[in-house]
Amino acid sequence: MTSRPGLLVSVDVGGTLGMADGPGLTMRLVEASPLPPARTRAILRSSLHTRPALTDALVSEVCEAVQVPTETFPRDASPAPFSLYPGVTEALRRISAVATVVTLSNVTCVDADTDGLRTLLSPWVSDFFPSCRIGHTKPDPRAFHAVTDHFATDSDGLIHIGDDWACDIVGAIEAGASAVWISRGRQVPDESLLVDHGVLVADDLAVAATHIQHLAARSAT
Asked: ∠ CA(55), CA(72), CA(32), 5° rounding?
């Protein structure tokens, strides 16, 4: 078993830790597709986001699915610079004092920039689990299980932090993990999950870090 301190925490990236300074491949395809944005994103999650490399066959498959001409596929796309939200580094430092911290994100192989994230988040984040590497996207339970399998722990030993209610919170619960929702002032979509599954709500990662510290203190007693 991989040695780790205290708890195991996975953290979403975009919208939770920060934002890309420009549109990535996913956003460009969503804007180009005539389909409803939510439908396009769902299609991309199940296809483009789970592949480790951009091949001609994949481009054709994706373009057909989202109804975009192959000749307009943005093959020149590259990872946009990523900016952390204020206070994220300090929050990660606090979480990493009581837990092993990893990222778990839905991202294409084009937009994934693990080396850049490692530079931004070191030494607080110890590993990175982009969907294009693990082959599964949130809310698929297999995405969360990729993390727990790596650390040889059960799903109930994982706490996931994220801002997307469906992908991060519902996905984590269905995978058997605990969850902290980054609300940024939004209303809770389904308060029954707070009661039935102990979902915690935090306005930002700093508040989430306090939740994690409290959970760590309770688990140590």
From this structure: 110
